[in-house]
Design brief:
mainly alpha; globular
Amino acid sequence: MLNLIIVILLSYLVGSFPTALVFGKLFKKIDIRQHGSKNLGSTNAFRVLGWKIGIIVQLIDIAKGFIATLLISKLFYGNLPFENRTPFQDITVVQIIAGISAIIGHVWTVFAGFKGGKGINTAAGMLLSLAPIDATISIAIFIVVLIFSGYVSLGSISAAFAFPSTMFIRENFFGVEIDGYHTLIYFSIVVCVFLIYNHRGNIKRLLHGEENRFEKWWKVRWIQIDAPFKRRRKQKDI
């Protein structure tokens, strides 16, 4: 039991590393919590700190999920302190627990008053290590949505929804045998709901046509997905 607790705590601390906050103070001498959306995620880092620092922040946040899932989990040895009713080996269950702990650390970081990012990048790191094909497809969907809309939040929400959907389609329609599918699919749905819930403010702004858009990343502009929302807002103003 003790070494599992150690894995959980270390994974949480790794996930809690406030990358955007540290890089903001280190390179720009600012507290990113006082700028932009005041969020400690990579999107706000791109907006406030610039694309170069934003990429570094994003890669480190993704790495936190990898480190917890693939490295810290190896500190576990012995048997689980509870009955493992999943088709996974004990170490895989520990990897899932470690990954979730890192995501929780990123969202509620102890180093910044328990207010962090929204967990997308750290979750991506964890999911890439557990189900690389499904996670890669989800990342591709994120990029496509971003290019067509310019909204990082919409891309993140789409990617979160795409992960369990991709897994379900591959298993049930294309006959791909995914190890531990009947456990992993439920786990992925929980992660999806959690990530979308963290974007509830963004969803509200998207519906009202008030969400900030990255113009430089909005490459395909023949689809005006927010036009109905903007018309609705104008009608209210009138």
